[in-house]
């Protein structure tokens, strides 16, 4: 268990980009192929052996998330819920999570991001260790054709970060900052210093800018061999589902299967896995879990 770090996953917001579906269902509960969207970021935290995780949720959605995960004990984890009364920006989650974090570093994830790639756990582990030993913040850049939709990072020739801008009209590069961040224990304090943007939101890019001013922000580019989806629009939602389906059908392995990761981490035993798989035995998902038991 990684006790020096906790994970916080943002699963609130109004999901307006996915209307009308999200008028009745929180977008993070919608299925990306064969499992809820929220499973994908959660699985990244689990791959890093982080067992203490909080979900930042809207008041009206708490019950649905609790129905899905409970307190996490069936997975050998501890899952808490933090209520965000109104969506006031991605950085607000750090402030709301201050008591939960209680002075630990944080793996901070957006609940609608799907990331996949060769050696991804290793890449994340290196970033995590960097923050645990050196402090500061660590995030990832990914080349996109439409950088004006995202937070954009600019580098010099040696890879040093020069600037980070939220949804710039004239982007200084085509590298978007993806929704996967590591912050040291100062993150809630740094987030409190941030002023709301023109949109009236506490932007996560503003938090990264504060770390950049201190000279303690690192950015790693995820190049070929990585896929990233911000599944908050209809097109990217569909693309993410098709991608997961293709990989799973080709390899016979599941992406973001939280029961499998808990089992392989040794957090649950064979009996517990069978208990989780039995009610799902008529589904492909359940059959996959039961197959793991027979390995």
TrEMBL record:
Its cofactor is Mg(2+). The keyword Cell membrane does not apply. Its EC number is 2.7.7.24. One of its GO terms (molecular function) is glucose-1-phosphate thymidylyltransferase activity. CDD domains: G1P_TT_short. Residues 6-245 form the Nucleotidyl transferase domain. Catalyzes the formation of dTDP-glucose, from dTTP and glucose 1-phosphate, as well as its pyrophosphorolysis. NCBIfam families: rmlA. PANTHER family: GLUCOSE-1-PHOSPHATE THYMIDYLYLTRANSFERASE (PTHR43532), GLUCOSE-1-PHOSPHATE THYMIDYLYLTRANSFERASE 1 (PTHR43532:SF1). This is Glucose-1-phosphate thymidylyltransferase. The lineage of its organism: Bacteria, Pseudomonadati, Thermodesulfobacteriota, Thermodesulfobacteria, Thermodesulfobacteriales.
């Amino acid at each position: 268990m990684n006790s020096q770090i906790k994970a916080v996953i943002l699963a609130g917001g109004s999901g307006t980009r996915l209307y009308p579906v999200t008028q009745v269902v929180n977008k993070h509960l919608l299925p990306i192929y064969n499992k809820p969207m929220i499973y994908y970021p959660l699985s990244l935290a689990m791959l890093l052996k982080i067992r203490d995780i909080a979900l930042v949720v809207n008041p009206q959605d708490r019950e649905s998330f609790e129905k899905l995960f409970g307190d996490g004990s069936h997975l050998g984890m501890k899952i808490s819920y933090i209520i965000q009364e109104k969506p006031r920006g991605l950085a607000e989650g750090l402030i709301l999570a201050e008591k939960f974090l209680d002075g630990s570093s944080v793996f901070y994830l957006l609940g609608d991001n799907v990331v996949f790639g060769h050696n991804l756990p290793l890449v994340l582990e290196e970033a995590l260790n960097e923050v645990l030993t050196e402090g500061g913040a660590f995030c990832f850049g990914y080349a996109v054709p439409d950088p004006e939709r995202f937070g954009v990072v600019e580098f010099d020739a040696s890879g040093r970060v020069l600037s980070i801008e939220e949804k710039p009209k004239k982007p200084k590069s085509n590298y978007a900052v993806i929704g996967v961040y590591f912050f040291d224990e100062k993150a809630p304090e740094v987030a409190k210093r941030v002023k709301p943007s023109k949109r009236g939101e506490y932007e996560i890019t503003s938090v990264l800018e504060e770390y950049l001013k201190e000279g303690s922000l690192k950015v790693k580019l995820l190049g070929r061999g990585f896929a990233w989806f911000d599944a908050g629009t209809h097109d990217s939602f569909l693309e993410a589902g098709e991608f997961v389906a293709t990989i799973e059908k080709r390899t016979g392995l599941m992406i973001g299967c939280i029961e499998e990761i808990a089992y392989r981490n040794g957090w649950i035993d064979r009996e517990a896995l069978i208990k989780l798989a039995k009610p799902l035995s008529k589904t492909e998902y359940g059959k996959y879990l039961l197959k793991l038991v027979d390995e």
